[in-house]
Amino acid sequence: MFRTSKQEILADFGFDRDPFKKTFVESTDYKRINKVVGMAVNDRAMVAVVGERGIGKSYAVRSTLRTINDVRLVCPLANDINKLLIGDIEQALILDLGNEKPKRGREIRARQLRRILGEASTRKAVVLVIEEAHHLHGLTLRSLKRIREMEWMGNAELLSIILVGQSDPLNKPGVSEVRLRADSIHMRGLSQKEICAFIGHSTGQVFDQKAVNVISRLPNAHNYEDLKTILFQLMEHALFSGRKTVTVDDIKSVFADLDLKEIYREAGIETSLKRAGKKEKKAIEKDSTVQLSGFLKNCQTDGSDVSQKVVNG
Predict the structure, then answer these.
(1) Is a pLDDT exceeding 90 seen at residue 293?
(2) Residue 192: exposure state from Cβ atoms within 10 A (0-12, 13-18, ≥19)
(3) How many CB atoms lie within 10 A of CB 182?
(4) Terminal Cα-to-Cα distance of the chain (whole angstroms)
(5) Among candidate residues 34, 130, 54, 49, the one with its CA nearest the CA of residue 90
(6) pTM of the full predicted structure?
(7) Residue 144: which H helix or E strand, with range?
(8) Domains of the chain by residue range
C-alpha cells in the first residue's frame, strides 16, 4: 500500500515517535462503553461490546476497567479463539483467581471453580473478558451463562462477563436464552468533530485545516485504524509532491476514485473553489482588455492601416 514505511513518513515530517500511540479522544463511544461496562461490573452482568475491526473496542473496555477500583481481571490467553472451549475458560479462571492446578474431572473441576469464584468475589469484583467473542461457539456461550449463575454461600452471579467482538455473539443461533439475560452495545465510531480532534492532537501541524474538514467526512474515517491509514496515505503523497503540508490537492489525488463533490460542498470547499474560479476569470478578462487597449493605442500612434481597420470594425 505504502511505497515508504510509516516510520520513515513520520520521520520525514519531523516526528521522533509515533504520534498516534498516545493520542486519545474521549469520544461518545468511549463514554458509552465507560457507563455500560461500569454498570456490568457493579451488577455482575454479561454484556457484549460490538464493533468493526479497528473501531476501538478493546481499548475502550480495558481503559474503563483500569479506572474501576478492586477489579480482578481474567483474560483467556488461547491464541486460536475458534477452538476456545468452556474447559479452557474454566482453567483460566482457576489459575488466575485461585493459583491452583485445575482438577481433571469435569464435575470436580466445576466444584473447584465455584469455590474459587465464590471466595474471589468476596474480595474483588471478578471480570472475565473474552476478545474475538464472535468466534465463540453457541455451546460455549451457554456454558458461560451457567458459570455466571453459580452460587456460593448464598450469593449468586459471582462474576461479570464482557464479550468483545466484531459481530454480536449473542445473535448466534441457539443462544436465545443467553441473549435474554445479557445485553449488547454497538460502537458507532468517531464523529466528524472527534476525527478533527484526533488529527489535531496527533498530526495536526502537517494538515491544512480545509484538508482536515474533508478527511472528517471521508468514508471509513470514523474507524481509528482506517483513519490512520488515510492520514499516512495523504502524508506520503504530500512528501512525493515535495511538500510538508497535506492539502485538499492530496485528497483529490489519493482518492481520485471517489466522488468528492458532495464532501467538498459539506466542508465548504466547493464554494471557495468556485469563488476562486470567478476571481481568476475576471483577472484574465481584465488582463485581455488591458492588452487589447494597449495594442490599439500603439496602432493609432503608428498611424497604420491596421489600426484604422480595428477601430472601424
Answers:
(1) no
(2) middle
(3) 21
(4) 62
(5) 130
(6) 0.81
(7) helix 138-148
(8) 6-19+191-267, 28-186, 280-312
Which amino acid type is present at position 52? E
Phi and psi (nearest 5°) for 114? -60, -45
Q: Which CATH number is 28-186 given?
A: 3.40.50.300
Phi, psi of 240 (to 5 degrees): -70, -20
pLDDT in tens, 35-48: 999 999 999 999 99
Pinpoint the alpha helices (H) of 203-304: 209-215, 224-240, 248-254, 261-267, 269-302
- DSSP per-residue string spanning 3-33: SS-HHHHHHHTT-SS-TTTT-----HHHHHH
Q: What is d(CA 188, CA 199) in angstroms, rounded to the nearest whole number?
A: 19
Measured CA to CA, the distance from residue 182 to residue 114 in angstroms comes to 21
Q: Please say whether the beta carbons of 153 and 17 come within 8 A.
A: no
Separation CA 215–CA 268 (nearest Å) = 13
Question: Residue with C-alpha cell 484574465?
Answer: 284
Distance CA 212, CA 206 (A): 10
For 111-126, write each residue's pLDDT tens digit.
Answer: 999 999 999 999 999 9
Q: Is 305 helix (H, G, I), strand (E, B) or coil?
A: helix
Contact, 176 vs 210, CB < 8 A? no
